[in-house]
Amino acid sequence: MIGDGMGLAHICSGMYANQGQLTITNLSTTQMAIDYLSSRSTNSFFLMVEGARIDKSAHSNDYSAVVREVLDFDKAVEAAIRFAEKDGNTLVIISADHETGALALRDGNIKEGKMKAMFVSKGHTPIMVPLFAYGPQSKLFGGIQENSDVSNKIFQLLAK
């Protein structure tokens, strides 16, 4: 939370074991961190969760892994939004630091629930990334912004 009880959960990695072993997801690590921090915080806390395996999968041009990681990340975002809804004073920001792979979706079939994908790169690209916010002060994070503007606004809110 920020300052006067206003909370901030910046959702931007779950930890994974080898195949066939226990997988700790973004959802489980995010929920555990929220529970831990909110139960021990007397005033506020800051939490950043990164979906780093999305980037790693895009560098490898592994579409199936990108889809799995985005769906897992979506569950972490849901955990943060649910906390924010209950708390009423928590700001949730969802974004990325860059795009990787220039992933293009094509040949989608809604009835079959299938989509084909094509990567143009194995590196980072200049493609803009989305920025979403929910909760108090969320209006500060709308529209097109530089990454540094987003972080500066977070620091300003934390200083209050």
3D architecture notes:
This protein is α/β, with parallel strands linked by helices and 160 residues long. The protein has a single domain (7-159), classed as Alkaline Phosphatase, subunit A, CATH 3.40.720.10. Helix content is 38%, strand content 20%. It is built from 4 helices and 8 strands, in the order βαβααββββββα. It has a 4-stranded mixed beta sheet, covered by helices on one side. A two-stranded antiparallel ribbon has the order 4-7. A two-stranded antiparallel ribbon has the order 5-6. β1 (7-11), α1 and β2 (46-49) form a beta-alpha-beta unit. α1 runs parallel beside α3 (63-87). It is globular and about 50 Å long. The termini are close together. 25% of the residues are buried. Residues 1-23 have low confidence and may be disordered.
Question: What can be said about this structure in brief?
Answer:
Helix content is 38%, strand content 20%. It is α/β, with parallel strands linked by helices and 160 residues long. It has a single domain, classed as Alkaline Phosphatase, subunit A (3-Layer(aba) Sandwich), CATH 3.40.720.10.
Features:
160 residues, alpha/beta, Alkaline Phosphatase, subunit A, four-stranded mixed sheet, two-stranded antiparallel ribbon, 4 helices, disordered N terminus
Write the layout of secondary structure elements.
Elements: E1 7-11, H1 26-40, E2 46-49, H2 52-59, H3 63-87, E3 90-94, E4 99-100, E5 104-109, E6 114-118, E7 124-125, E8 132-134, H4 147-159
Parallel strand pairs: 1-2, 1-3
Antiparallel strand pairs: 3-8, 4-7, 5-6
